[in-house]
């Protein structure tokens, strides 16, 4: 063993002692026989104050040594104290001696066993032991691990075997190391090894077995073997072999049989009994195969015989365990196959054995598995596989028959795989074997373990039940499962109802991380008195101890409380380096959302108040502790979000608010340190600050009922215990300022200093809060894009949230008051002490802080308003509206007030930020006005002022680009409503033409300025025409104004046409005509003609009322009995006389209901019975903008009223009169005149005519239905009355048609009117012929006279001669 290493390369006393001296039984250098020289536990860093956990976390090198039960020493739990050795106890108490020494840079001693607590709760703890050698902590090292006597651990790799005391409190730097004494290839299975106790001797032996060849090497003393390897070349171990192995057969396990040696398990299922001493106690390797059919020793021939005879040696052995049948008596070996077959042998210490028999337990276990509550588990039972078992040491009740070859019955717990490997569950079955009969007393289905997808464990699950056997441990490749075995009384009434009582017992699984991947390579049990414990060998980490408390000593529970699980994940994992446990493997179905939410909020609150056992109550540095709390809260939300996704949004907001309070406290503490340093520098001693005052005020309000101990340092106490009330500090800062404002004893400079501190506290704290919210929103599941400056932009997102601490009622009140008081104090004190140099310095500093306060005030206002608006009750929503109006007013006053502190620029920037265009406009205008006044006062040198004015002009222009129409609307509304609208309009056209145009065109109410801008600046005549037309049609109420605007609209189109022709671009007559407002002008002309018709009647009136009465008496007599229509006529006439614009329906009503005025000598504007023709003209002009149905209804109404205007009874009586008399009466009727005027103007034949002539029968029912008129009158009473009058007129028309042959009379009117039109046309044509003949004669005479030498007369030339075509037309005649 040339490569063997020893931990202490000192000379062995055995090599220099007297050779005649009787040799001792063991080497004096043995770890156990040679007593160590005791050293004092005191060293130079024993009394140094230990670093707190938060200090170590913040510094990046945490090393948390658990005290009692892994908790903080401050709150020990006597019921959960772990067992410690006397040496550990002394060491611990010595370290706690409160003696002050100079702090050393040497790292402090670790407490307890030096292990790192990975996780801990009331039921169990998991610790990473520090003793593992560094060679075995590498992730790429494979080894087999086991435990031996005297707290020794063994790890066997392909190259070496390592032995060390695994209970060491520090890493073992030099373990006992032995080279593997036989060759092992890299592809071979790992060798096997075991530590061997030497009976009463304290020596420890080592046996190594080759997995592929079966070679065995045994060292009866590791101390002697290590010593001899240094000075002798000869071998120090005993070699041997297991015998001949079959091809492909390998050693899979080595099981200790205590003084009877070992049982070697082969991959074929064969078992080998290995003994290491002969009958005289000398070291010797002896191996024999255990056979189930006959006694005998093993060997090559025996193996061949078994193979040839077809013996039953090939079995799928799952596990082999041994037990003692009595003190120093024989040992019993028990093997279990995958199919639940048990075989037993009695083993003697000298190598002999006896086969006791075989018991098949499959059907018994299978029957119990079928009874499991889960249908899935019961259905998978047919594919069950036995994985492992553990023997139990329970007393027999004396009723069972003895098992063959055994002195006592067998009780065991079997680990059963239920189902296939890729879809399985695991069950623990408690099995009793008595009198070759197996019974299952209890089954427990393991529910907490779920194999990772794609995980391929290098070792199969193993079961351990260490003393005192109240808990079972199951190790998987990636997890350790602990399950309680102690259940209720099996003889009780509940157990008697079911032979296999299934109980919900405590169970939990500790998963290992997979990135980097940690794998359990092996495990072993530790015997204890009250706590059950096991050791796992974890690849990449080392030895991990899992220790479970006795169930009777802790409250019963089915699983670990969610609060503890989250707490461990936060403090043991996220804040502790090197934790190998995967805390994310938590099935959220095991905990309700309410449980998780309550636990998360409680942990968060405990972090804030330092009531968590992981947070120190006496930190050496507040700054460090605040950083630690911030890290803890961030780790909390990260863990909860990843593993409990079903939680509500409100919970994450509450966790965020807690984290914000820590962020605020960090900023406030930094500000406090700054203020303290500044004040102390002035007074050369620790001077009080505002923070001292507000913390004292806060403590007074919180002292009652508080269980937090107070000290003289109220500031420190607050930041350690009271962070949940951090908003009270800000409120008390405002309250202190309010008292300071009325205080007269303070010097002005002192007031300004306190004011600066208060503003600094507010600004630093809340700016830090809102910035923290923006930076960390995503971590709390909040979309960053939903926030602006830390405020949710959509008020509906506040619906499920409780009120935020930053926008509570007291915070809103305090923020507004802080701004007002700060500005008032600064202004007042400056005015009183303007000449004081110190005040001249302090006031501007205060002025710079106030805009920051205003920004915070705005954010608090916005959040409060949005939250109230999201409430379901109407009262809060109304309050939100009031608060919004109050916010607008307050913001306006506060922003404008900044100018008094020479902070106008800051005020404008705030208005920009909050999109307050009205305030920004007024500040810009005020600033401009101030500059103009300054220019007038200082006329000599205006260079700086002019530069400022130019900058303001450029700024205004930039606002148009930045804010668009919002700024344009606010700015132009302001400047055009002032007394300088004209100059401002010119400036706007010069500098901001494009925004001005957009502004003017955005609203119809700006049309009167818009068309001016279109014509003068933009030269856009088309838009100018459209604007004027739209204004005339929709806005104008006076007919004269409408006529002017329509005329100007037409003029703008003509100007556009002229411009196009000048540019060589033509415009078709059709396009021009379609754009012209001729139809609208036609309506205006009709109303003007009506007014001119009535004006002679009202010239004698003294007022408008008199004019209306005269008009009603003159034209309204025919409708005395139709009261609704009379009122309708009266209303229309009133508007006509006032020259208001009438809608076409109202104009038609007036024209068709009024009485015609006939005069013997008619004036120029008398209508002479053309009222109905004017109504048709009005309808035709308005028809393009009306629906066809409405046009038809109005047209029928016009003709109906036209036909009932005359007394057809009287006309019908003229049938016996001559034709001339009848013709004369027809010409005096209204239908005749209406038809005549239409035919004379060729009205119905025009291409754009929308009306036509209707017969009386076609007019029946006009305007008699509600749907015809309900668009005009919403009042049902008025509508019904008008319809009733219309129906009366309808009945009248119906009577004329049926009784007076009205249809025939109308036909006669049409024929007569057409004849009259033709006669008039012939007369006009005859007059034109006579005129033309006269003109021609004059032209001939003039020509002859000129040729005869007479004086030249007038020369007349007919430019245009047209043949008369029967249609009236004018000829253009040019005379010259």
UniProtKB/TrEMBL annotation:
<dbReference type="Pfam" id="PF03177">
    <property type="entry name" value="Nucleoporin_C"/>
</dbReference>
<keyword id="KW-0811">Translocation</keyword>
<dbReference type="InterPro" id="IPR007187">
    <property type="entry name" value="Nucleoporin_Nup133/Nup155_C"/>
</dbReference>
<feature type="coiled-coil region">
    <location>
        <begin position="1310"/>
        <end position="1338"/>
    </location>
</feature>
<dbReference type="GO" id="GO:0006606">
    <property type="term" value="P:protein import into nucleus"/>
</dbReference>
<feature type="region of interest" description="Disordered">
    <location>
        <begin position="1343"/>
        <end position="1376"/>
    </location>
</feature>
<keyword id="KW-0175">Coiled coil</keyword>
<keyword id="KW-0813">Transport</keyword>
<dbReference type="Pfam" id="PF08801">
    <property type="entry name" value="Nucleoporin_N"/>
</dbReference>
<feature type="compositionally biased region" description="Basic residues">
    <location>
        <begin position="100"/>
        <end position="109"/>
    </location>
</feature>
<feature type="compositionally biased region" description="Acidic residues">
    <location>
        <begin position="1358"/>
        <end position="1376"/>
    </location>
</feature>
<feature type="compositionally biased region" description="Basic and acidic residues">
    <location>
        <begin position="80"/>
        <end position="99"/>
    </location>
</feature>
<feature type="region of interest" description="Disordered">
    <location>
        <begin position="1"/>
        <end position="113"/>
    </location>
</feature>
<protein>
    <recommendedName>
        <fullName>Nuclear pore complex protein Nup133</fullName>
    </recommendedName>
</protein>
<dbReference type="GO" id="GO:0017056">
    <property type="term" value="F:structural constituent of nuclear pore"/>
</dbReference>
<dbReference type="InterPro" id="IPR037624">
    <property type="entry name" value="Nup133-like"/>
</dbReference>
<keyword id="KW-0653">Protein transport</keyword>
<dbReference type="InterPro" id="IPR014908">
    <property type="entry name" value="Nucleoporin_Nup133/Nup155_N"/>
</dbReference>
<keyword id="KW-0539">Nucleus</keyword>
<dbReference type="GO" id="GO:0000972">
    <property type="term" value="P:transcription-dependent tethering of RNA polymerase II gene DNA at nuclear periphery"/>
</dbReference>
<comment type="similarity">
    <text>Belongs to the nucleoporin Nup133 family.</text>
</comment>
<keyword id="KW-0509">mRNA transport</keyword>
<dbReference type="GO" id="GO:0016973">
    <property type="term" value="P:poly(A)+ mRNA export from nucleus"/>
</dbReference>
<feature type="domain" description="Nucleoporin Nup133/Nup155-like C-terminal">
    <location>
        <begin position="655"/>
        <end position="1307"/>
    </location>
</feature>
<dbReference type="InterPro" id="IPR015943">
    <property type="entry name" value="WD40/YVTN_repeat-like_dom_sf"/>
</dbReference>
<feature type="domain" description="Nucleoporin Nup133/Nup155-like N-terminal">
    <location>
        <begin position="120"/>
        <end position="545"/>
    </location>
</feature>
<dbReference type="GO" id="GO:0031080">
    <property type="term" value="C:nuclear pore outer ring"/>
</dbReference>
């Amino acid at each position: 063993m040339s490569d063997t290493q020893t931990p202490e390369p000192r000379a062995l006393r055995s090599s220099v002692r007297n050779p005649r001296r009787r040799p001792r039984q063991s080497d004096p250098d043995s770890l156990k026989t040679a007593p160590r020289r005791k050293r004092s536990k005191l060293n130079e860093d024993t009394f140094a104050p230990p670093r707190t956990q938060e200090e170590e976390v913040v510094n990046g090198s945490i090393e948390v040594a658990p005290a009692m039960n892994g908790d903080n020493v401050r709150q020990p739990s006597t019921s959960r104290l772990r067992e410690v050795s006397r040496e550990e106890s002394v060491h611990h108490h010595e370290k706690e001696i409160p003696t002050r020494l100079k702090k050393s840079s040497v790292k402090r001693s670790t407490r307890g066993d030096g292990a790192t607590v990975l996780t801990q709760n009331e039921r169990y703890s998991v610790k990473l032991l520090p003793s593992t050698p560094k060679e075995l902590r590498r992730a790429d090292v494979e080894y087999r691990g086991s435990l031996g006597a005297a707290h020794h651990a063994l790890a066997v790799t392909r190259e070496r075997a390592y032995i060390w005391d695994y209970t060491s409190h520090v890493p073992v730097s030099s373990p006992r190391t032995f080279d593997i004494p036989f060759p092992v290839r890299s592809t071979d299975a790992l060798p096997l090894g075991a530590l061997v106790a030497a009976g009463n001797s304290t020596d420890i032996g080592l046996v190594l077995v080759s997995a592929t060849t079966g070679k065995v090497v045994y060292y009866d003393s590791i101390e002697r073997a290590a010593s001899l390897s240094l000075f002798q070349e000869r071998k120090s171990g005993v070699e041997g072999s297991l015998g001949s192995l079959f091809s492909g057969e390998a050693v899979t396990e080595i099981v200790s049989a205590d003084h009877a040696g070992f049982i070697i398990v082969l991959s074929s299922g064969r078992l080998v009994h290995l003994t290491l001493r002969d009958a005289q106690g000398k070291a010797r390797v002896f191996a024999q195969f255990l056979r189930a059919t006959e006694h005998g020793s093993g060997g090559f021939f025996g193996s061949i015989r078994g193979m040839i005879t077809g013996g039953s040696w090939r079995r799928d052995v799952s596990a082999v365990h041994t037990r003692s049948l009595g003190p120093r008596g024989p040992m019993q070996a028990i093997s279990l196959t995958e199919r639940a077959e048990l075989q037993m042998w009695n083993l003697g210490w000298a190598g002999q054995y006896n086969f006791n028999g075989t018991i098949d337990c499959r059907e018994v276990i299978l029957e119990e598995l079928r009874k499991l509550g889960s249908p899935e588990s019961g259905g998978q039972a047919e594919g069950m596989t036995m994985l492992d078992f553990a023997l139990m040491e329970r007393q027999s009740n004396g009723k069972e028959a003895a098992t063959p070859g055994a002195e006592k019955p067998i009780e065991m717990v079997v680990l059963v795989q239920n189902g296939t490997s890729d879809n399985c569950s695991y069950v623990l079955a408690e099995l009793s074997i008595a009198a070759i009969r197996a019974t299952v007393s209890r089954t427990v289905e393991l529910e907490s373990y779920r194999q990772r997808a794609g995980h391929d464990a290098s070792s199969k699950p193993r079961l351990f039940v260490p003393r005192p056997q109240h808990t079972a441990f199951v190790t998987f490749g990636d997890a350790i499962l602990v399950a309680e075995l102690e259940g209720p009384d099996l003889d009780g009434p509940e157990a008697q109802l079911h032979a296999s009582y299934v109980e919900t017992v405590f169970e939990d699984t500790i998963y290992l991380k997979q990135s980097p991947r940690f794998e359990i390579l092996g495990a072993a049990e530790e015997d204890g008195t009250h706590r059950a414990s096991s050791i796992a060998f974890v690849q990449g980490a080392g030895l991990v101890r899992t220790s479970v408390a006795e169930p009777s000593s802790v409250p019963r529970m089915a699983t670990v409380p969610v609060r503890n699980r989250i707490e461990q994940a936060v403090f043991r994992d996220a804040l502790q380096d090197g934790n190998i446990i995967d805390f994310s493997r938590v099935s959220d179905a095991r905990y309700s959302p309410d449980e998780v939410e309550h636990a998360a909020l409680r942990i968060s609150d405990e972090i804030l108040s330092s009531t968590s056992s992981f947070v120190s109550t006496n930190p050496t540095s507040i700054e460090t502790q605040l950083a630690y709390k911030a890290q803890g809260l961030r780790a909390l939300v990260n863990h909860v979000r990843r593993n409990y996704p079903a939680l509500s949004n409100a919970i994450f907001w509450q966790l965020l608010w807690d984290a914000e309070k820590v962020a605020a406290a960090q900023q406030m503490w930094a500000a406090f340190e700054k203020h303290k340093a500044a004040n102390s520098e002035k007074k050369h001693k620790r001077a009080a600050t505002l923070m001292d005052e507000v913390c004292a005020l806060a403590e007074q309000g919180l002292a009652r009922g508080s269980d937090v101990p107070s000290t003289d340092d109220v500031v420190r106490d607050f930041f350690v215990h009271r962070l949940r009330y951090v908003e009270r500090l800000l409120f008390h800062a405002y309250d202190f300022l309010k008292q300071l404002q009325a205080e007269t004893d303070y010097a002005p400079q002192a007031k300004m200093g306190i004011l600066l501190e208060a503003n600094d506290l507010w600004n630093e704290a809340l700016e830090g809060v809102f910035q923290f919210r923006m930076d960390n929103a995503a971590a709390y599941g909040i979309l960053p894009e939903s926030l602006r400056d830390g405020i949710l932009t959509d008020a509906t997102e506040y619906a499920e949230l409780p009120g935020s601490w930053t926008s509570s009622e007291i915070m809103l009140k305090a923020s507004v008051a802080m701004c007002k008081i700060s500005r008032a104090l600064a202004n007042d004190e400056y005015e009183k002490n303007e000449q004081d140099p110190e005040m001249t310095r302090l006031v501007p500093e205060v002025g710079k802080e106030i805009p920051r306060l205003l920004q915070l005030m705005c954010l608090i206002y916005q959040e409060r308003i949005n939250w109230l608006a999201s409430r379901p009750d109407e009262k809060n929503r109304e309050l939100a509206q009031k608060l919004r109006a109050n916010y607008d007013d307050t913001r306006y006053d506060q922003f404008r007030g900044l100018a008094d502190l020479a902070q106008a620029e800051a005020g404008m920037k705030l208005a920009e930020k909050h999109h307050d265009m009205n305030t920004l406009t007024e500040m810009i205008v005020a600033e401009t006005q101030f500059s103009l006044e300054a220019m007038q006062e200082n006329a000599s040198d205006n260079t700086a002022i002019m530069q400022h004015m130019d900058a303001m002009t450029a700024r205004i222009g930039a606002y148009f680009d930045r804010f668009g129409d919002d700024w344009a609307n606010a700015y132009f509304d302001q400047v055009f409503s002032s007394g300088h609208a004209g100059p401002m309009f010119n400036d706007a056209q010069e500098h901001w033409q494009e925004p001005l145009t957009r502004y003017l065109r955005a609203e119809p109410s700006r049309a009167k300025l818009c068309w001016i801008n279109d014509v003068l600046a933009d030269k856009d005549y088309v838009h100018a025409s459209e604007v004027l037309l739209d204004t005339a049609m929709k806005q104008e109420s006076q007919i004269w104004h409408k006529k002017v605007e329509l005329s100007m609209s037409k003029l703008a189109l003509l100007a556009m046409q002229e411009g196009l022709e000048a540019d060589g671009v033509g415009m078709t007559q059709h396009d021009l005509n379609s754009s012209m407002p001729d139809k609208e002008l036609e309506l205006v002309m009709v109303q003007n003609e009506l007014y001119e018709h009535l004006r002679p009647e009202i010239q004698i009136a003294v007022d408008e009322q008199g004019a209306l009465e005269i008009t009603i008496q003159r034209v309204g007599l025919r409708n005395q009995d139709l009261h609704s229509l009379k009122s309708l006529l009266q209303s229309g006439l009133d508007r006509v006389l006032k020259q208001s614009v009438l809608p076409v329906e109202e104009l038609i009503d007036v024209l068709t209901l009024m009485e015609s005025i006939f005069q013997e000598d008619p004036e120029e504007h008398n209508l002479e019975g053309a009222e109905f023709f004017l109504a048709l003209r009005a309808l035709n002009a308005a028809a393009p903008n009306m629906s066809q149905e409405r046009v038809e209804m109005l047209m029928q109404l016009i003709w109906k009223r036209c036909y009932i205007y005359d007394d057809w009874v009287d006309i019908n009586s003229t049938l016996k009169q001559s034709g001339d008399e009848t013709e004369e009466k027809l010409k005096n009727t209204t239908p005749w005149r209406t038809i005549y005027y239409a035919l004379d103007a060729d009205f119905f034949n025009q291409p754009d005519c929308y009306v036509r002539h209707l017969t009386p029968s076609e007019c029946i029912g006009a305007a008699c239905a509600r749907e015809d008129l309900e668009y005009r009158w919403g009042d049902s009473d008025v509508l019904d009355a008008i319809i009733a009058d219309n129906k009366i007129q309808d009945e009248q028309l119906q009577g004329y048609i049926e009784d007076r042959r009205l249809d025939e009379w109308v036909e006669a009117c049409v024929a007569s009117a057409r004849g009259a039109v033709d006669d008039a046309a012939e007369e006009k044509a005859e007059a034109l012929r006579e005129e033309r003949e006269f003109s021609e004669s004059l032209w001939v005479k003039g020509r002859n006279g000129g040729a005869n030498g007479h004086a030249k007369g007038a020369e007349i030339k007919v430019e245009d001669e047209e043949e008369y075509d029967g249609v009236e037309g004018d000829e253009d005649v040019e005379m010259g």
